[in-house]
């Protein structure tokens, strides 16, 4: 599902559509290498009005929301998508799965990739015995510089079983030194395997926080977006309107659509937990009406976007020049957001996947249909 209105090139680049306008300087020590423990003790920058913000802890979330509010969360689960194999002659190969195409066929980033042309094979498992897994290069992918790999399992195990045994949950490249268990890079409600990166805004929730949200009358529902290359692929065009997002698989079920409609009909607010939830819900509403949707979306949201579904957002702090930073800018404005980022840096917030969070409340939006 695409959004051609927001992907057409412009003859000149406005400030809001220039890639350079989305850069900021982040000291390396601000990049979190480990999550907060407990998870809900991370910091939370609450954007409460068009001009004001407050500093909280994530565990304060029930006090910032209203009874009847609806949180929408992404229940995708990160798979062990990083594999180490070798060519039949013995040279080492690293594979990062990105996206499935059909049965046991995946788009993957492969290192080193230059010598792995169509027809080449990669073996996984012991070099001294029959491989547990074999991948054949089917084709190259120009958009990602990756390879389409067709997997076979000589020992008759399923690909999922072999991945659980041989694979590793991939951490982002900016997490360079950590010894945390893989489950720390999963939300506590991760249920549907398929992502190659975590929906990190959800990493802050704990069972205790869910219980307190229940007591406060705050609802929740779940969609699925399998986070893939579309979420973290860098924007490389100077005019951001010319960037095309890679598609990601989405499931917005009828029960969630009904719950959102009921919430709005009763005058309450829908708060997305993470940018993946935003893309799923807004992608399912590109006809002008939110409808159940199961398929792929490549929706790219940046300033000028006309919002359809969400009223507020919980999100982590994002990389300079990223499509995620542009999405959040579309909600509260680029200059406001970069000012808040500078405040967060000055105040010692921790950035990126294992870092702290921000909540943009509906009261912070100057022009919103539900305000």
UniProtKB/TrEMBL annotation:
Record's catalysed reaction(s): 7-aminomethyl-7-carbaguanosine(34) in tRNA + S-adenosyl-L-methionine = epoxyqueuosine(34) in tRNA + adenine + L-methionine + 2 H(+)
Keyword field: Cytoplasm, Glycosyltransferase, Queuosine biosynthesis, S-adenosyl-L-methionine, Transferase
GO cellular component: a single term: cytoplasm
Enzyme nomenclature, EC number: 2.4.99.17
Keyword Glycosyltransferase assigned: yes
Signal peptide per UniProt: none
Gene3D superfamilies xrefs: QueA-like
Keyword Ribonucleoprotein: no
GO biological process: tRNA queuosine(34) biosynthetic process
Subcellular location: Cytoplasm
Source organism, top-level taxon: Bacteria
Pathway: tRNA modification; tRNA-queuosine biosynthesis
InterPro entries per UniProt: QueA, QueA_dom1, QueA_dom2, QueA_sf
GO terms for MF: S-adenosylmethionine:tRNA ribosyltransferase-isomerase activity
Assembly with partners or alone: Monomer.
Cross-referenced HAMAP family: QueA
Function: Transfers and isomerizes the ribose moiety from AdoMet to the 7-aminomethyl group of 7-deazaguanine (preQ1-tRNA) to give epoxyqueuosine (oQ-tRNA).
Recorded family membership: Belongs to the QueA family.
Protein name according to UniProt: S-adenosylmethionine:tRNA ribosyltransferase-isomerase
Organism: Halomicronema hongdechloris C2206
Protein encoded by which gene: queA
